[in-house]
Amino acid sequence: MLGSVPMVQNPFVAAPAKIAVIGLGYVGLPLAVAFARGHEVVAFDIDASRIAELSSGRDRTLEVPPEALAAAEQLTFSAEAADLKGCNVFVVTVPTPIDEHKRPDLTALKAASRAVGAAIGTGGVVIYESTVYPGATEEDCVPIVAEVSGLAFNRDFFVGYSPERANPGDPNHRLENIVKVVAGSTPEAADFVEALYASVVTAGVHRASSIKVAEAAKVIENTQRDLNIALINEFALIFHRLGIDTQEVLAAAATKWNFLNFRPGLVGGHCIGVDPYYLTHKAEALGYHPEVILAGRRINDGMGGYVARELVKEMIRRGVMVKGARVLVMGLAFKENTPDLRNTRVIDIVRELADYGVEVDVWDPWISAADARHEYDLDLVERPQAGVYDGVVLAVAHRQFVEMGADAIRSLGGPGAVLFDVKAALPKATADLRL
């Protein structure tokens, strides 16, 4: 963690930057703590239980340790919008998900913009970090701030954009050591945003020429990764039909110096499985139908169902009566070693198996039972009973699961149970199926 950081003046008002961070998830909380080393910060979230939790010194996301929260003396937590008054810099880090039709859902972003509009004064600066399609900041958010505040854009208030690059559960890539892309609505606003982030990001900042460029950079970062994984997933589908082990193929291909070493798997989370739809939405609004991006999305969105169907086929080959069979799914988080279950594609495995009449238990020591119930109406098992399952799916390679080893995982199933190692986290010979 960084030590103290220099205070940055707000060049548009005769006062230091007093910062409001709106949205205290995986992105907003670490940012608020970092800024609080040099500035007075109001950390705001509409979830009163989240504010109570953070005020007590605990972060359920595990992104900020208790000692860092305790050391942030200039940090105030609040769920009251009135507490945003008096701030002159507003950083918006609310989620931007997709709806059930895979369309961008800007509900939280627009609500945050209204809250900013009600609090901002002349000379204020709004910086958006939420992932959006190119143009959303200036076309969707700025008009709301202007209307609610009664202030004129680029005369009375200014806007910046700096896309988040958080990677939940990654101890090596943190806010401080990831290069920050920044942009501003005027050259002076860009100067301010650059200086503000440079005060907390040791890796440096990259200044984009416009807010739209910065917005576009964010969505293509994750779209590119999504497509690369989709390509490997398609390879896996083909190699399975050829009777070839995908992991062995990838290991051989990786000996070439310029081979991109992606792995097949489930693509969920708040970024990779979502951001491409923001770009395709904007493209279609402009009359262009993206083909490659959406093809990749179809492949990745279908992998959970594929895992479930292959498991069922193997159970049938072994004479297991599928209807009423019991299967244990190990892991619900969207990736290993994090309590984040946003947009997890493990749920696709669970639902597909349920459609076959399978009784599914889900075990994940990283996920709270309340979160699983709230997000997916799913009751987790605290500890599975050994020897009772017809199939076991290692869906998320949490370190606890990997440390168990293949024998202990197999012991959870009964005689002849099928073990599907989705993440290829176990030795090849120990699993019956893997991607």
Q: Which terms summarize this structure?
A:
15% strand; eight-stranded mixed beta sheet; alpha/beta; single chain; elongated; 14 helices; 435 residues; five-stranded parallel beta sheet
Q: What does the model show?
A:
The chain is built from 14 helices and 15 strands. It is elongated. 38% of the residues lie in helices and 15% in strands. The strands form three sheets. An eight-stranded mixed β-sheet has the order 5-4-3-6-7-8-9-10, sandwiched between helices. The protein has a five-stranded parallel β-sheet with strand order 12-11-13-14-15, sandwiched between helices.
Sequence-ordered SSE layout with sheet pairings:
Elements (H helix, E strand, L loop, with lengths): L8 E2 L4 E2 L2 E4 L5 H8 L5 E4 L3 H8 L10 H6 L3 E4 L10 E4 L14 H13 L4 E5 L7 H14 L7 E5 L18 E5 L2 H12 L6 E3 L3 H32 L3 H8 L21 H11 L6 H10 L1 H15 L8 E5 L15 H10 L3 E5 L5 H8 L12 E6 L4 H12 L2 E9 L11 E2 L1
Helix pairs in contact: 4-5, 7-9, 7-10, 11-12
